[in-house]
Specification:
The complex is a heterodimer of chains A (169) and B (364). The termini of chain A are far apart. Chain A is mainly alpha-helical and 169 residues long. Chain A is elongated and about 65 Å long. In chain A, helix 5 runs antiparallel to helix 6. Chain B contains 7 helices and 24 strands. The radius of gyration of chain B is 21 Å and the shape is globular. Classes of the chains: A mainly alpha (169), B mainly beta (364). Chains A and B meet through helix 4, helix 5, helix 6, helix 7 and helix 8 of A and helix 1, helix 2, helix 3 and helix 7 of B.
């Protein structure tokens, strides 16, 4: 890891959302969750106000703020010892983080933000949530939610049904 | 929402986290989803199912068989929205859907399928994941040893090889091919004395690989009709704990001298010259925590069970538990409590396989 220039303040990472809103976190926090921040350290030079700016200009402020919230939480959790209690508390936090108020659109934006900085932990969490939301749905419900065209022929549908006669399709 | 190339990668990340039934059902969403779900890219990203056969020693248990099948699959054990972290319990599979379950015995298994047998000549192949089964026609000869071969990554078809008679350096076998639905008789030439052959074997890449006490592994080809055998020298002696396997397509060998486990990989096999590399070594100290003075709970024994098919991870059995050990991180990365009846249950063999479209459609 590149050494900080002498006499500098804490290095920060700033995410810039749609509308020019800035969301900051210490570099050390970003490094825990973001693969692209870790990789960028190898070649980025810190200048001027000692902060790395990452533009997420087509993502709304709310998901970007949630992303920073996630990074802060993961960095704090990384410093405490692993235990069954800690794992349970993490699960409970994740349930609250992606609470009932997080709708499909917000989930998608959160995923886009996570992908932008390669926050694998958050990508995993959101994908698990989406899987949980759709697992009990019928194919028609999936098509309606995601706006997908039904382009299977009756023959293809029969083939799928036969190959998978162990479940009801 | 999920469109374009980036969309497909994301969609795959969501799909691989679904329970198997949902995944199978969602093939009906659209042609794109069907292609993605039945494709190789997704199959390679699916979490593997771990299953195994347990042998219950001791007095016969009423209503229970001596050999039982147990299975752990990541998405089936996951509660709503909560992922199973760390340890997981593996329950014996309920085989009640198979009518001959109580009157037949499990005699072999392979990557998600089981081979049942009842005297005099009743063979059944059973898929516990889809709860389907098939009765095989009887072979002509009595069988001394039967082996099931199935690769859910390659094909929905399976083979059953019955060794009917031993020859000095080979055997007369009958092979059932599910594609043709018929038995064929063949004569095998092992290339070494039959007396040296062990019963320790595994299936990979359309072949059966058998360990021989003479310090060799014999590869019996199943792809062609000739069933040619090839002999490769092993880098270390074959004890009863020795096992072979495959990882990323290469032959691996695990040998133990009682104190240390040595893990080898075959680099080159040119005729009788085989080049093996010693990839990893582990001892009990790597697996159990030691107290401050460095004393380990040394009464624990670990038996090598299998290589992960893709990662540098191996599976070890200690009574009651299957432990996954990451060879690069040098630490235990998972544990499964195997078998609900822990008293005297021995894990005989395990398989790690993905839920593929071949697994879903075989025996259809």
């Amino acid at each position: 890891m590149a050494a900080a220039p002498s006499g500098s303040r804490t290095r920060m990472v700033t995410l810039i959302s749609k509308g020019g809103r800035n969301f900051k976190m210490p570099e050390a926090v970003a490094l825990v969750s973001s693969r692209s921040c870790r990789e960028a350290l190898d070649y980025i030079e810190y200048r001027g106000n000692n902060t790395m700016m990452i533009k997420l200009l087509d993502i709304d402020p709310k998901p970007v703020s949630m992303l920073v919230n996630f990074c802060n939480h993961m960095a704090a959790a990384a410093t405490s010892a692993a235990s069954d209690d800690a794992a349970q508390r993490m699960r409970e936090w994740e349930e609250r983080f992606l609470g009932d108020d997080v709708d499909q659109a917000l989930l998608y934006d959160l995923l886009s933000a996570a992908i932008s900085i390669q926050a694998d932990g958050l990508i995993d969490l959101v994908c698990k949530r989406v899987a949980h939301m759709i697992k009990g749905k019928t194919p028609q419900e999936i098509r309606t939610i995601l706006g997908i065209q039904d382009d299977l022929t009756p023959d293809q549908r029969d083939e799928i049904r036969t190959d998978n006669s162990w479940i009801d399709i | 929402m999920m469109d374009g190339e980036l969309g497909e990668d994301l969609l795959t990340e969501v799909l691989v986290r679904l329970p198997h039934k949902s995944l199978a059902r969602f093939q009906c969403v659209s042609t794109t989803w069907r292609a993605l779900i039945s494709g190789d890219y997704l199959r390679r990203r699916l979490p593997l199912i771990t299953s195994g056969v347990l042998f219950h020693d001791g007095p016969p248990r009423p209503g229970k068989q001596a050999y039982t099948y147990a299975c752990a699959s990541p998405s089936s054990s996951a509660q709503d929205g909560v992922e199973d972290r760390g340890g997981s319990g593996v329950e014996e599979a309920d085989m009640g859907f198979f009518p001959c379950h109580a009157t037949s015995s499990i005699i072999d298994g392979c990557n998600g399928l089981l081979l049942y047998y009842a005297a005099p000549a009743a063979f059944h192949v059973v898929n516990p994941t889809t709860r389907r089964w098939a009765a095989l026609p009887a072979p002509r000869q009595r069988t001394l040893l039967s082996v099931l071969a199935f690769d859910p990554c390659a094909s929905p078809h399976y083979k059953v090889v019955c060794f009917a008679r031993w020859l000095p350096r080979g055997a007369c076998v009958e092979v059932f091919d599910s594609e043709s639905g018929a038995w064929r008789e063949r004569e095998l030439d092992f290339g070494i004395d039959t007396d040296a052959m062990s019963a320790t074997m595994h299936c990979s890449g359309a072949a059966i690989h058998v360990l021989a006490y003479s310090g060799h592994v014999v590869r019996i080809d199943l792809a062609g009709t000739g069933m040619a055998c090839a002999v490769t020298a092993l880098p270390a002696p074959v004890s009863y704990r020795a096992r072979a396997g495959h990882c990323r397509g290469r032959l691996r060998y695990a040998s133990s001298d009682g104190a240390r486990l040595s893990l080898w990989e075959l680099r080159d096999a040119e005729g009788s010259q085989s080049q093996w590399a010693l990839k990893h070594e582990l001892g009990v100290r790597d697996l159990v925590s030691c107290d401050a003075s460095g004393t380990c709970q040394s009464n624990k024994t670990f038996l090598f069970m299998a290589f992960h098919p893709e990662k540098e991870v191996v599976y070890l059995w200690t009574p009651g538990k299957l432990v996954a050990f990451d060879l690069e991180q040098r630490r235990v990365v998972g544990e499964s409590v195997f078998g609900s009846d822990r008293e005297g249950a021995q894990l005989i063999q395990i398989w790690l396989f993905p839920f593929s479209r071949h697994l879903a459609s075989c025996l259809a």
